[in-house]
Fold this sequence. Notes:
The protein is of the alpha/beta class. The chain folds into two domains: 3-137, no CATH class; 142-383, Purple Acid Phosphatase, chain A, domain 2. 45% of the residues lie in helices and 16% in strands. It is built from ten helices and twelve strands. The strands form two sheets. It has a six-stranded mixed sheet with strand order 1-12-2-3-4-5, covered by helices on one side. It has a six-stranded mixed sheet with strand order 6-7-8-9-11-10. Helix 9 links the parallel strand 8 and strand 9. The relative contact order is 0.13.
Amino acid sequence: MSLGRIAVFLTVILGVSSLVHYYLWARLVRDVELPAPWTRILTALAVALTLLPVASMLLMRALPRTFASPIAWVAMIWLGLMFFLLVILSAGDLVRFIVTRAQSPLSADRRLFFARVLGGATALVGVGVATTGIASALAKVAVKEVKIALGGWNRALDGYTIVQLTDVHVGPTIGRAFIEDIVAQTNALSPDLVVITGDLVDGSVAELGQFVEPLKNLRAKDGVFFVTGNHEYYSGVDEWLAFLTTLGIRPLRNERIAIGGENGFDLVGIDDHRAKDFGNGHGADLPKALVGRNKERPTVLLAHQPKAVTEAAAHGIDLQLSGHTHGGQMFPFNYLVGIEQPVVAGLQKFGETQIYVSRGTGYWGPPMRLGAPAEITRLSIHAAV
């Protein structure tokens, strides 16, 4: 990215941060009329927090991980808390607007009373919700069992198990220990197949390779496979594809391979939906992957973004496994995700095609999850009755 684009990007971030923090300051500091020392202290804090997003981005790139990681933790936790404060305050302001329009103009004392009630409640609820979100995100990742019945599935393969890992987002706040734990849990499930459906990393191989390395210990009878997510394209995708190969992980780039012999199934993997924007020969191409396919064999598609299901259904794919959404990660963000993607989380059907969307194994940005716990997904596939 050129220096000009970086400058524009940082300017936009600073502008958005300024607007959000001004709103929070106005509602939580100015309007509640705290005693002078607290007003000055909190105003200074608001200015510092306004600059934090840009400052943290610059420092995390300039400093070694030992110093950058604590900065990232502070910045990301505040980002999550800021989101919850913004949502709660906005809802409170909407209620206050409705109430005040239905009544006579409020006196100055009553306006101050309502401002203090809203500010205090917002602070208490926001901190409580953020704390709950942190506890959820940092808890041991649970295994989610999903049973799927597929037409045409050979009964000899009933109970075939696929473990899906997705959206791990190894980066400033997720490191080697997390990967080691995920590997141990996955291996304990004795899967027939392991699939990683994108957004594994947020950084280069040089920065994060040592933290991802424990993935080489994944064990599955029929192998470990990977498809790109959009974040791989921000992180040096070709270097990551080459590196994962050295770990015994097979990337599938618009490819189809046979699993389980003559009576098995086809495993298909395509590039991320946005890969074409990055050039260098990348881009989802499902028709290419399906050339020469025997339509009598069941087909399992790995596609990072759920929106690929429309094309998958048109081509008669039996099952699509996706991630990308994080299940919304932090309520009520799931409603915004649902505008862009046809499925936010769980198992759904589009025509004859089933799709399972994982809520993700790690997290992105704030180390918080609210209403969308992380998962290691164990899919057990059976023949439809």
